[in-house]
Amino acid sequence: MKRDYWPTAHWRSASPATLRIIPEKLMELDRIIESEYVNLNGIVVIRRGYIVFEKYYNGYGPEDTYHMTSVTKSVVSALIGIAIDSGYIESVDQRVLDFFPEYNFNISDSKKEITLRHLLTMTAPYPFEDWREPLDKLCMQSDWIKYTLDMIGEGGKIGAFKYSTAGAHLLSAILTRSTGKSAREFANKNLFGPIGMKEIPDYEMKAFGFEDLFGKNVRGWVKDPDNISAGGWGLTLTPRDMARFGFLYLNHGNWDNNQIISNAWISESTTPHSGISINNTALKYGYLWWIHEDNKIFAYSAEGDGSNVICCVPCKDLVVAIASGFSANSRNRGTLIEDFIIPAIMD
Q1: Which of 16, 182, 189, 323 has a Cα at 20 to 30 A from 81?
Q2: How many other CB atoms sit within 10 Å of the CB of residue 316?
């Protein structure tokens, strides 16, 4: 898609009406957020490459960074794609254990067969119940990788969807072993820098308690005791940089005539490969991206606890970035997008 500018240095804004958006709908959106979405701290809506709505709440502003929680996983997916494009990794069908030749404990047949594709699609088995991953145990380990390798491949069959944050951390470790750089360093050079996102500073982990790993102390990008960037959470971004990342995907990995991520990887990442049904609702999953097809509108999103979201809606040339504070019972941000933002678009 031809663009009249690229937001590498800064975003341009436009009035909603000039981009065929009903302004009153966005005013209603603001009122709903104020009254019903108390942990929502920032939202940026991009239409045709322009900011048409941007608001901050709870004392936050556009220069503040926010812990993206599991949105981090989708960034790690992008980095794996770039590493494959660049020849650091052969393919998603490489076996996980090939990257850890020193590991020789509890090697079951299923463990030997697990590939990067299984980690990307959440189809590797683990010995915990669905949605009850013991992250506290992971965080108490001196060696997160050995702990995860001991656990993966146990307690089920390859191919069934089981959401795992530890599995995403293995992808970060594989990236480091393949490139010689942490995910943070690799991202700054090969992803964040080229599209104008702020450089992510090194976050000195002085402790590994809740606040350091998940809470108010999180800065830059959380890392494990071996200095491997956390693969499943821990990245902090501004909402505008969240929107840049989404805009890159909306443009099939191209940024101002530079192919940052291959179109093939974007397509593979946003195609359903697995999924799960929750409360009679089918949820589809790509390569660490959630896939949505509601009311004949195709969208894909990076999502995290607290309802952090980067949602891309290609047919509307739309990106919505939402940053939130952690809350165990936060309201679904999809409702805001489906009920207020998409209906505001007149074409």
Answers
A1: 323
A2: 19
Strands 236-237 and 258-259: unpaired
Half-sphere exposure of residue 12: CA atoms within 13 angstroms, side-chain side = 11
pLDDT in tens, 21-59: 999 999 999 999 999 998 999 999 999 999 999 999 999
One domain, residues 88 and 184: yes
Q: Quickly list H helices, the chain.
A: 23-36, 71-85, 109-113, 116-120, 135-139, 144-151, 165-179, 183-187, 210-213, 239-250, 263-269, 333-336
The pTM of the full predicted model, rounded to 2 decimals, is 0.96
Residues ≥6 apart with Cβ < 8 Å to 327 = 38, 39, 306, 307
The token duo for 292 is 């949505």
**242 in the same domain as 158:** no
Q: Are residues 251 and 278 in the same domain?
A: yes
Q: Which of 146, 178, 213 marks a domain boundary?
A: 213
How much of the chain exceeds pLDDT 70, in percent?
Answer: 99
Q: Residues near 103 by Cβ (< 8 Å), separated by ≥ 6?
A: 97, 146, 149
Q: What is the pLDDT of residues 90-131, one digit of tens each?
A: 999 999 999 999 988 778 888 999 999 999 999 999 999 888
Strand 290-294 versus strand 66-67 pairing type: unpaired
Structure tokens at 265: 């990887």
Query: Over 90: is that where the pLDDT of 293 sits?
Result: no
Q: Are residues 200 and 89 in the same domain?
A: yes
162 and 156 in contact (C-beta within 8 Å)? Answer: yes
The parent domain of residue 149 ranges over 71-213
The answer to whether position 30 is within a domain reads yes
Which tokens in the block code for residue 71? Answer: 């949105």
**Residues 169, 59 within the same domain:** no
Residue 320 one-letter amino acid: V
Q: DSSP letter string over 234-295?
A: -BEE-HHHHHHHHHHHHTTTEETTEESS-HHHHHHHTS--EEEEETTEEEEE-SS-EEEEET
Per the domain annotation, does 218 fall within a domain? Answer: no
